[in-house]
Fold:
Amino acid sequence: MNIGFKLNIYTAVTILLMACTDNQNSNTITYSKVDQTNKKVDSLIKIMTLKEKIGQMNQYNGFWDATGPVPEGGDAEKKYEHLKNGLVGSMLSVRGTKAVKAVQKIVVEESRLGIPLIIGFDVIHGYKTLSPIPLAEAASWDLEAIEKSAQVAADEASAAGINWTFAPMVDISRDPRWGRVMEGAGEDPYLGSKIATARVKGFQGDDLSAVNTIAACAKHFAAYGFSEAGKEYNTVDIGYSTLHNIVLPPFKAAVNADVKTLMNAFNEYDGVPATGNTYLLRDILKNKWDFKGFVISDWASIKEMVVWGYAKDRRDAAKLAAIAGSDMDMESHAYINELEQLVLDGIIDEAIIDEAVRRILTVKFELGLFDDPYRYCDEAREKDVINNPKHKDAVLDMAKKSIVLLKNENNLLPLNKKGMNLVLIGALADEDNSPLGSWRIASKDHTAVSVLEGMQQYEGNNLVYKKGADVSIGDTEFTNELKINTADKSDFKEAVDAASMADVVVMVLGEHGFQSGEGRSRTDIDLPGVQQELLEEVYKVNKNIVLVLNNGRPLTINWADEHIPAIVEAWQLGTQSGHAIAEVLYGDYNPSGKLPMTFPRNIGQIPIYYNHKNTGRPVSDTKNPNLVFWSHYSDSESTPLYPFGHGLSYTTFEYKNLKLDKDVYNSDENINITVDITNTGKVTGKEVVQLYIRDLAASISRPVKELKGFKLTELQAGETKTIHFILNKDGLGFYNNQGDFILEPGTFKIFVGGSSYTALDAQFELQ
Ligand code: BGC
Structure:
C-alpha cells in the first residue's frame, strides 16, 4: 500500500482490511475483488458520521470554470472549510496535477477520515487535443475509432489529475434546433447504443484503476434530447413507447458496459423532474437494470426542482432527489445543507444515505484512489502525455473518418493536385478556434488547424483566400468577446471577383463552434448571417463550387443542395480539422461517413427522423402538392433533404443478392442474412452496409424502418464481398409500455443498403 499521506483513522482501517483479505486468501477462502471492495466500503461506512456520509454526496465546482450560474453562497472559503471537514466527496472542473493534488491534500491530510475526492470534468471530445465533436464522430460509424478517441481523451485527462468524465452524452434527439445534438450520437437508438458502449469502454478500459483510464458518466438520464421545440432545458412530453424504445436503450447499453456513473437531466419527464424521478432512477435504473454505480445530479438540477414547481423549497428538493435515487449533488448545495436534518427528523431513512455513499465509495475504490489518492497527479506523466504527438495522429484519423460527402455531381471532388486556380472563401475557412467546438474547457483557444492551413500544404495549385463574410457567433454570455458584425457585406465583392476567375471555388460556411452546444438552441438552422447570400452571389459568377459545411447540427441547406455540385459535411472536427478536410478535398482520404441524423428541408419538418411510424395515411407520392387527405405537407416535400445513414464516397457501390437462409423461423433461431456488395468505381473505398427491419404488425405499432446492424467494410476497385448479418430476438423484439422486452410472431421485412433510403428488401415469418 502506498501511503504518501498522513495516517488517519481510515488509513488504519484500510490496512486492517487488507491484512484480513490476505489472511483469508491463505486460508483458502477466496474473496472476489468485488466482495473485497464491498467489505472495505461497509467497514468504512460503519465508522463514518452522518455528516461525513452526506459529505460524500456533495460535489463542488472548482474555484473557476463554472458551466452554469455560480451558486449563491458557493464561495471558495466555505468550500475550503468543507473540504477540511470531510464534507465534500467530489470536485468538478479542478484540473492539472498541481491543482488536483492541492485539493486532494486538503481532504486526505486534514479531514478526519481522509477519504479521497473523485475529480470530475467534462472531457467531451478530448482534453487538450480535441477530437471531432461527438455527433461528427458518430458519423464515422466506426466503433473502433470512437473507442480509441475516448481512450485518447482519458489518457490526457487522467494525466491532468482527472479521474471521472461527464461523458458520454447518450441522449437521442430528433431535433436539430436543440444545440446539444452536437454532443450526442444522433437520432438512432441502435447506433447510439453501440457508440455509448464504445465510448464507455474507451474511457474506462479494462481496468479502472489503471492511471490512464477514468470513470465514465452516461448522461442525461433521461429524455433531455426530447425537450419540446428543441428549446434548451424545456419540458419533455413523450409516451412510454418512445421512452423505452428510443430514449433508454443507449443508457441500458452503457450500464451493460459497466458505466460507473449516470447524470440526471435538467428536464422533467411526464411532470416529474428527472432528478426527482423515482420511476427512472429507482424502478428502472437501480432495480430493473441493477445499476451498481452512482447517479450525479446535473448542475443545480436538485434545487431547480423548486423552480419547476415540483419541490416546495430546497429542503423538499433534497428529500425528493435523495429518495428518488440521485446520489450526489452537483452544486445545488441542497444535500450538504438539508439532508442531515431530514434524517434527524425521520423524514429520510439513513439507509438511503448509506446506499448512496456505498455507491460513491465503491467507485472511488475501483479507481484506486484509496491505494493512492495522488495516483492521477504525476507531473512527469502530465508533461509526457498531454499534447503528445501520437494524440494528434489519432484525432486526425478520427476527423477524416467523421467527414460525410453529401453530394458530388460530375465528380467535382476530389480536386486535382496541380495546375488549378482555387479560391477559398468564408470566415470559417480561416478559423483556428471554431473547429474546437463549444466543449473545449481545457484546450487552448486557437489551436485548431484551419482549412486554409490544411489546403496550403498542397502546393501544386494556385490558392487564393477571401473571407467574403463573417459567420455569426451569436451574442451570448460566453462569446461576448467574439461579437462581430454579421450583416456586413463589404467583403462580398472581393470574394466574388476572385471567384469569377477560379477553376474551382471552395466555400467553408456554416456555424461557428460556439453556435451549438449547451444553451444554444436555434429557431432557424439556415446558414447564419449573410453566408447564404454570399453563396448565391458567388454562384452567379462560378458554378464550380465545393461547399464545405462546418456545423454542430443538421442545417437546412435546400438551396445549396439544388445548386451546388459538391457538398462536404465537415462538422467541427477538432484540433486537426484543416488537415482532415484538405486530405478529403484532395482525395488523399476517401470519405466514408454517414449521417447519424436526418437533414430536414426546412424547419417546419422538425422533428423528422427515419424511424417514424407509417400513420394510417402514408403518402404515396411525396412530391405531389395536389394530394390532400394524406400524411404530408402541402407546401413542402415530406421527405428529408438527406436521410439518416446517407453519405457518398469517391467510388460507387452496388448491392446485390440479398438472401435469407430460410423463410420461416422459430423465435429462438438466428436469422442469417447475406448480401453482396461490389465496389463499382475506380478507387478503394469504405462503405457502411446497413441492415434495417420492419415489423409489419405488432401490439404497439413499429417504425417503418429500424436499424438493427451495420458493417463498415473496405473494398478495392472492382472487388465484391459477401456481408453476413445475424438477427436474433434481441433485434426483433421491442419494449412494451411497461418497459418489458417482448418478442411477437409475425411478418418482418428487412432492408439492406448504404442509407436508410436506398435498400434491397426481403421478408420472413417469425413463428
Ligand atoms: C451540463 C452537464 C455538464 C455539467 C458540468 C451542465 O450544465 O448539462 O452535461 O456535465 O454542466 O459541467
User: Anything to note?
Assistant: Residues 1-7, 22-29, 64-72 have pLDDT under 50 and may be disordered.
